[in-house]
Every structure is written in C-alpha cells, then in structure tokens.
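Example record for the data management plan.
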Amino acid sequence: MSVIFDFLHLLGLIFLMCRSFRAEPSVPTPITCMTRGADLADVRAVVVCPSNCALQQLSVFGSRVYAAVSSVCGAAIHRGVITESGGSLKAHRLPGRENYLSSLSHGVKSQTLSRWTASFTVSNLLSQPMEVLGESSTIALPRPGPAKKALKKNPKKVTQNGNKGQVI
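Corresponding structural encoding:
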C-alpha cells in the first residue's frame, strides 16, 4: 500500500509541475511598440507596452481580432486595453482569418487585410498591479487623562393641557 501511495504522491507532484510550467507568467514581459503578434513566443503571453506608442506609425490590421503582422501595443491601444501611457495586457494567438476589417478606435486607425496566416487578440489582465498615490495621514487620538463623563439629559415632560412641569 505504501508503494501505491508514494507513486500517487509523485504523480501528483509531476502534474503540478507541468501545470506550473504551462501557466501564464506572473510578471509581464516588456515589449517594444513595434513588436508584432507573430513575434510572441507563446500562444498566451502577458506583456507590458511602453508609453507613447500611439505617437509612432504603428501597423494594425483588423478590429478585435488582429492579423499577426500587427503591432501588439497598437492593437491594445486600438482595442482600449491600454492607453497611450502603456501598460500590461494579455495577448492570445489564434489561427489566421480571411478578412480583417478596418476601424478607427481610441485614436488608432486599423487597416483592412484580406488574408493572413495567424491572428491574435488582446485583453485586460484580471488583476493589474495598482500604484497608490497620496499623502500619508495620521489619526488624532484623545489625550491620555481622566475620562469625561457623558452628560445625562432629563427629558421634559408635557402634561395633557400643554403645561410643563406637571406629570400626567
């Protein structure tokens, strides 16, 4: 029985190791504004685009699904996944398509293309790291010393005829 348990334990470890190698990287890989979908090594990649890519002449072919010859950062800006200031995103490779439609979105004009061998999509990361900006604050605590007693208020009693002082 111990041999079977050891075998199943080892098999479970191998399974977990295989899953961790196939998982998406937790740290985005930096790319350039000119990196194309065809340049991505993995089917699913987490990448980070630099700022000011929208200022460059980027080639983007398609809408929502982009030809692999398109700029990944340009496609991400076009799709609204990132802004001109850059950011992290997911890119997912897909098979090629027959038609890639053009559109103008978020300041990027994509082009039409009749056919390409591979495609990709871009999407937001589920949990992007957030930078917290602000000023530090302190909480004012009461000074140590004798505690003040709460004042007790006596409710005014009203009589039937509206005169104060007489209790009903």
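Summary line stored alongside the record: Confidence is low (pLDDT under 50) at residues 15-22.
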